[in-house]
Design brief:
Layout lengths: L2 E2 L7 E2 L7 E2 L2 E6 L7 H10 L1 E6 L13 E2 L6 E2 L10 E4 L17 H11 L3 E5 L4 H12 L4 E5 L10 H16 L1 E6 L2 H9 L16 H8 L2 H12 L6 E8 L8 H6 L10 E8 L3 H12 L3 E5 L3 H9 L3 E4 L9 H8 L3 E5 L4 H7 L4 E4 L4 H13 L17 H10 L3
Parallel strand pairs: 4-5, 4-9, 5-8, 9-10, 10-11, 12-13, 12-15, 13-14, 15-16, 16-17
Antiparallel strand pairs: 1-8, 2-3, 6-7
Length: 413
């Protein structure tokens, strides 16, 4: 397996000077390299002797080539940031995620536990315990006395299960949570999920998801330049109303709710209403057919764009639409769009809707699957598109939030 070795060990200094330097060895167990998590791992590694153990190399395109086919989008891409740079890492397997999820992944449990014991960490962070493999590893580590911390997307808002699966899942989660030093849910829905399973408030701390906010803050300074240039390129008037969808063209995103909302609505089909589409995926051909049928030349498909490029598309737009009906535990495109001064219309199943709305973010929500409610939200957004100016984007979650809070927790071990 490929490895990257760090050259320096940095220890945390205790708040109490009588303790001097307090060495901590942190092992992060994660399913696979993720673009928005990498900046957080780099920050953690600057303060703690850290090693990341990935279950799968999926997304680790930089190992052998600069580009590869992304399984979610189905297109060739490369990440903006160096996804494996700045921290020590190792891969447990060379398998794609589909080969290590579910019961088949349990065959790797003995090897995972051996790796954990060999590293002898002071603390273990399980970064999203969704696969059965990492869930059981976390339970075993917790019940054998290791200091475990959980960063979780778990929520009861999405992915309905039958009662038997839910029963056994709850037993396992209660066992895991009962031995965790602290659990960091990403949303208030996640906090409620944990509280229902017996986790006390002193072992719970919500830390919202965030993309690379340093990049977004830098790009937001070019807002007016991007807005003017891209609108001119696409033939869109500066004062036109522009909606945008950014993400995968897939079933769980419920993208076909959008053309239904625009269809037979004269106000949403006026000449000064445009739609920008950014993404790729298995439903792309049908998506393009339907949107072209509804909006004609006012529909602009830009294909897949990385984070540094997509900021230009957000700047040219007024309102992001995210109609997801499943698996949208947070919705990072909403963070990106808000940072570039867009309003947002999103399904109530998007995990961030409640949390970011409480910060004052200009988000309108609708019941998942209801194209009539979506249409009403789009009309309201069109008639009041300047409300974004009232929102302070500095209130959005930041990249350093989770690293800072985690370090504060583990340095007192």
């Amino acid at each position: 397996m490929d490895k990257k070795k760090s050259t320096n060990t940095i220890h945390i200094r205790s708040d109490n000077s009588s303790f001097g330097y307090h060495p901590v060895k942190l092992l992060v167990v994660s399913t696979h390299p993720i673009q928005y998590v990498s900046p957080q791992l780099r920050l953690i590694s600057k303060s703690v002797d850290t090693k990341v153990l990935y279950i799968s190399p999926q997304n680790a395109f930089k190992q052998k080539a600069s580009k590869a086919i992304d399984p979610g989008f189905g297109v060739e891409l490369e990440w903006d940031n160096q996804i494996l740079k700045g921290f020590d890492y190792e891969f447990l397997t060379d398998k794609p995620l589909t080969k290590v999820e579910g019961l088949r992944g349990l065959s790797h449990l003995p090897r995972l536990l051996k790796k954990i014991n060999t590293y002898t960490p002071s603390a273990i962070l399980f970064f999203n315990h969704a696969p059965a493999l990492t869930l059981l590893a976390g339970i075993i580590c917790g019940w054998t006395g290791k200091n475990i911390f959980i960063r979780t997307e778990a929520t009861d808002q999405v992915k309905q299960r039958n009662w038997l699966i839910s029963f056994f899942r709850d037993l396992l989660l209660r066992s895991l949570y009962s031995k965790s030093k602290c659990i960091f849910p990403i949303t208030s829905h996640g906090r409620i999920h944990c509280e229902k399973r017996g986790v006390k408030c002193n072992r719970l701390q919500i830390v919202n998801y965030s993309p690379d906010t340093n990049l977004l803050q830098h790009e937001s300074k070019k807002y007016h330049k991007y807005r003017t240039e891209l609108r001119q390129l696409l033939g869109i008037n500066y004062d036109a109303m522009v909606f945008i969808y950014a993400g995968r063209y897939s079933k769980e995103k419920d993208i076909f709710c959008i053309p239904k909302a625009f269809c037979n609505c004269q106000e949403l089909q006026e000449n000064n209403v445009h739609f920008i589409s950014v993404g790729a995926g298995p439903l792309e051909r049908e998506w393009l057919r339907r949107m072209n049928q509804v909006l004609g030349h006012n529909f602009h498909h830009l294909g897949f764009m990385n984070q540094s490029k997509i900021c230009q598309a957000y700047a040219a737009s007024d309102t992001l639409i995210l109609p997801s009906n499943d698996k949208e535990t947070w919705g990072l495109v909403i963070n990106e769009a808000l940072a570039m001064r867009c309003n947002v219309v999103a399904s109530s199943l998007a995990g961030c809707v409640k949390d970011l709305s409480e910060l004052g973010a200009p988000i309108k929500s609708f019941s998942p699957g209801s194209y009539t409610q979506l249409r009403s939200c789009l009309l309201a957004a069109k008639r009041g598109k300047n409300s974004q100016a009232l929102f302070d984007i500095s209130l959005l979650p930041k990249t350093e939030d989770f690293p800072n809070i985690l370090i504060e927790r583990i340095k007192h071990l």
